[in-house]
């Protein structure tokens, strides 16, 4: 009887296996075939990674062609290829990277098909990450020649479609539906200038506006769009130039610094030239704006507002702070802990270094990421042996991850652009330091 039960059980299992749909079996076979192709690609590329020094399954040093082979072999399991695409210009030119990828594509052998697929995937990744590199006529022509003469099967169509898709991508901000609340002064000004830049004729009227004339959420949104527009324009080449204080080499970073300085000066002007009661309301308003900026992950705007409120000219007006409710003061002291540079901005780091989410992107602040770039470049060398072409692969990996957190050109905020408020933020009216000092001393 035991034999009969066992036989019946196996018959049941066999019949269940036969009842599996043909689609499921086909899916299993495709998975096995894909695994075999990836294994063949790893075997084919492994001969080029023999000279790499690897620790914890990641290369520490090696020549450039070996690092590219390792990155191709590891696709899509890790981000080694992304790091190479973003920061390769610190070691080699873009033309050398393209020549290396073309070289791997043209390697002969029975298992060259999976290698070619990985090369095409790497080129498409390059288009998505750094399409601006192909504005170089030499690189663009070489890419067209490669697509026309060497690419086989449907790879050519994939490359052309991806290149066109990335090239035609324009704009970042999508207008959202719904009315936006703002004050009568702003509406009147917008009707007067009719959506254009503020003319000199109404500049004086434009300057009498205070932060109390703006809606808290809307001002934070427009400030976020302005800051994000600057960060979006910040290219990888500027991050790798190592001369951040030079406006010629770092025009976007210089523009960000100028806007930050204007905002902090304008904040001091608002508080110092106002009576204590109004100054107290202004300080409370800026604290509310900093909370909204933190919600939108605009760390550049958040740092700007908090640094502005921490200026000596504002802090010294004790009567203004005494008029604030206790809960507002406690809220400010709690937010202020995020801007302390102790322990390498230890309080802000967990939030600042997060990758952009689905709801809101992330606007990094140069105060933090420029410090990281300077420490990385000064603390570690680019080459292990420059004469032999041995690259410091660990530095390339860390630098690539850092640049990747900053460089997010395709992320967007779904906020409506209000031209008049953005124009006000970019062209803030400021007073000289002497006048602010005199006003701050009148307590």
Layout of secondary structure:
Elements: H1 2-18, H2 22-46, E1 53-55, E2 58-62, H3 64-74, H4 80-87, H5 94-105, H6 112-130, H7 137-149, H8 155-168, H9 184-193, H10 203-207, H11 216-233, H12 236-239, H13 251-272, H14 276-295, H15 299-309, H16 312-315, H17 318-322, H18 326-336, H19 342-345, H20 349-352, H21 366-379, E3 383-385, E4 390-392, H22 393-406, H23 419-426, H24 433-441
Antiparallel strand pairs: 1-2, 2-4, 3-4
Helix pairs in contact: 2-3, 2-6, 4-6, 4-22, 5-6, 5-7, 6-8, 11-13, 11-14, 11-23, 13-15, 13-24, 14-15, 14-18, 21-22
Description:
The chain has 24 helices and four strands. It has 443 residues and is mainly alpha-helical. It has a four-stranded antiparallel β-sheet.
Largest sheet: 4 strands, antiparallel
Task: Give the CA-based shape.
Answer: elongated
Instruction: Please bin the fraction of helical residues.
Output: 55-70%
Query: Which whole number gives the mean pLDDT?
Result: 78
Round the Cα radius of gyration to an integer and report it.
29 Å
The strand count comes to: 4
Give a quick set of tags describing it.
3% strand, elongated, single chain, 443 residues, mainly alpha, 24 helices, disordered N terminus, 4 strands
């Amino acid at each position: 009887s035991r034999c009969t039960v066992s036989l019946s059980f196996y018959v049941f299992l066999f019949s269940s296996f036969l009842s599996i749909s043909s689609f499921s079996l086909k899916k299993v076979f495709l998975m096995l075939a894909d695994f075999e192709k990836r294994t063949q690609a790893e075997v084919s590329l492994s001969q080029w990674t023999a000279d790499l020094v690897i620790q914890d399954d990641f290369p520490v040093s090696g020549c450039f062609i070996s690092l590219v082979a390792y990155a191709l072999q590891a696709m899509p399991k890790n981000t080694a290829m992304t790091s190479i695409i973003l920061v390769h210009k610190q070691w080699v030119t873009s033309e050398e990277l393209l020549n290396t990828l073309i070289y791997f594509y043209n390697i002969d052998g029975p298992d060259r098909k999976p290698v070619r697929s990985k090369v095409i995937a790497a080129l498409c990744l390059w288009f998505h990450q750094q399409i601006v590199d192909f504005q170089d006529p030499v690189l663009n022509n070489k890419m067209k020649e490669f697509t026309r003469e060497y690419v086989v099967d449907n790879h050519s169509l994939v490359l052309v479609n991806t290149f066109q898709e990335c090239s035609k991508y324009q704009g970042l901000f999508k207008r959202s539906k719904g009315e936006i609340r703002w004050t009568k002064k702003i509406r009147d000004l917008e009707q007067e200038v009719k959506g254009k830049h503020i003319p000199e004729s109404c500049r004086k009227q434009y300057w009498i506006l205070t932060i109390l004339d703006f809606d808290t959420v809307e001002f934070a949104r427009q400030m976020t769009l302005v800051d994000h527009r600057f960060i979006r324009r910040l290219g990888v080449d500027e991050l790798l130039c190592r001369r951040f204080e030079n406006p010629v080499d770092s025009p976007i970073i210089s523009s960000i610094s100028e806007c930050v300085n204007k905002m902090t000066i304008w904040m001091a002007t608002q508080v110092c030239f106002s009576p204590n009661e109004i100054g107290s309301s202004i300080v409370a308003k800026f604290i509310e704006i900093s909370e909204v900026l933190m919600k939108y992950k605009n760390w550049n705007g958040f740092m700007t507002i908090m640094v502005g409120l921490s200026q000596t000219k504002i802090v010294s007006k004790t009567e203004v702070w005494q008029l604030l409710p206790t809960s507002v003061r406690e809220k400010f002291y709690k937010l202020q802990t995020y801007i302390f540079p102790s322990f390498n901005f230890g309080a802000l780091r967990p939030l600042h270094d997060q990758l952009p989410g689905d709801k809101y992107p992330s606007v990094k602040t140069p105060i933090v990421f420029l410090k990281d770039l300077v420490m990385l470049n000064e603390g570690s060398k680019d080459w292990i042996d420059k004469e032999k072409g041995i690259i410091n692969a660990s530095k390339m990996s860390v630098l690539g991850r850092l640049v990747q957190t900053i460089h997010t050109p395709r992320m967007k905020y779904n906020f409506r652009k209000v031209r008049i408020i953005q124009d006000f933020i970019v062209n803030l009216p400021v007073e000289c330091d002497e006048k602010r000092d005199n006003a701050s001393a009148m307590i």
